[in-house]
Design goal:
- The structure is a single chain.
- Helix content is 26%, strand content 26%.
- Helix 2 crosses helix 3.
- By secondary structure, the protein is α+β, with helices and mostly antiparallel strands.
- The structure holds two DNA strands.
Length: 243
Amino acid sequence: MSHCLSPIIDPTMPIMPDEQLSDLQRAIATKVVLQPLEQLPRFVVGVDAAYAPDRVGGGTVACGAAVVIDTSSFEVVEQATATNHKMLDYQPGFLAFREAPVLLEAIAKLRRRPELIVCDGQGIAHPAKAGLACHVGVALDVPTIGCAKNRLVGEHETVDQNRGDSQSLQLTETDGTSTSVGAAVRTRDHVKCVFVSPGHMVDVPTSVAHVLALAPQFRLPETTRAADQLCRAALAGHEGRSK
DNA sequence: GCGACAG
DNA sequence: ATCTTGTCGC
């Protein structure tokens, strides 16, 4: 019954040591493909998750949402949700193991096959270059972009205050060399930047361009906003009961 | 020992 | 992420 659709990790599996999880992330990073995605697809998927205490089990309930946005109108044309109860605790650098399973389940319920997925978190702007967006992209072999509200790793120069301004996120490797893993992007004048990085089958420049196109009015992409709204509503619907 | 630290 | 009211501003 509770089969997990995630080829990455089963949320019900026994606790795995951080070292082993890091190995998995390095393996995923190996599969990430960085290449331009010149055209923004007409339909873009947004995913996000919300959490709440589980009144019955005493643990935590996670609700994941996947929405399909028509970029010609920014309307939601399709949506799906999924929930699970046993997930790992949040640890910086390991978000994907907690969040990806329920997101993949929600995505699997969509009728259409995603052409591009925008995730609420990092892509390769990650200690092992395998953030949430990479996990999702590699698992489905679909282009993904990570658009996070906060920085995890990497440094950047001061970003000018107008929409469209950006600075590359530079990550210093263990060998001392520096690599661009993403960008701090201003999607609204005088408003805090978002942190954009490729998840899979996109590159930094096209990721930035697409996030800007998807966030014409607010700080966050419409995909993220719609998914956030949906998973919160769905979570509320799952409250007061369990199983 | 003291910070930093996606959601 | 989640806990939480009012409040300043367009």
